[in-house]
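Notes from hallway chat w/ T.B., transcribed later so I don't forget. T.B. wanted the structure written out for a chain they're using in a teaching module, and asked if we could keep both sequence and structure tokens in one place. Agreed to drop them here.
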Amino acid sequence: MSFKDLLVVVDLGQSAPERVDVALRMAREFGAHLTGLYVSNPPSFHPTVLEALPPDVIELQERVEREAADKAHAMFDERVERVALGVPTEWREAEGDVGDLATLHARYADLAVIGQTNPDDHIAPGTASDLPQRLILAGGRPVLIVPYAGRFPVVGQRVMVAWNAGREATRAVNDALPILAKAARVSVLVVNPRVGYGGHGELPGADIALHLARHGIRAEVSTVNTEDVRVDDMLLSQAADLSADLIVMGGYGHSRLGEMMLGGATRHILRQITVPVLMSH
């Protein structure tokens, strides 16, 4: 199976052009169709308040929203012409809650490409500070999160798989198979493995490496035991040491509320990533 239908969520944040570029290059690599989605989220007013607003105020709000959508569309078209002219693309606009509508549209794509939340421009038109969390948990599709800082001309040639033998990691590896099959190097990292039944087996990482080998994917497996460093920090450190251009991992092994209470790895990594991360739940 290959990616044939990609979605990129577009906004007016500073990092949006690079995110679109990543999605376009991926669409070109897989011969896929790319849909650009922009969601406007106008302020909602109680009907009594809306009736009291002067018409020119409402018209101004509508004009501002229209100009923002047009600007996002123009940026998308410009990146298509510059980066991957000839890739089949489609532009969609919707109005409402960004998280809800991005989730809805993602369910009709093989992969959704979004941006890491940038604390400096999270209120830019088309953005939602909790979009990564909501899309990972509710979209039912793998999500590629592109960092808000940096350029990423190559994604998926040197892949690090964060493997913990859990359901979410299993889903992520399966969802990433089209990328792993094209990668020049696949490294499987197991941190603090539990040996035996309910864990990683007698030889941690061997079973997933064998599974990947049956898909024609040669993976190098390494294990790390650490008590002094957080698992999420270790993952990011190892990704840097491996010069990985993509991390594949499961997202939200606990519920979102549980992650917040426990200081979960997913939430920490979503804040700290410096390379794109493919997550599945």
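Follow-up for T.B.: The chain has two domains: 5-146, 158-276. Might be a good example for the class.
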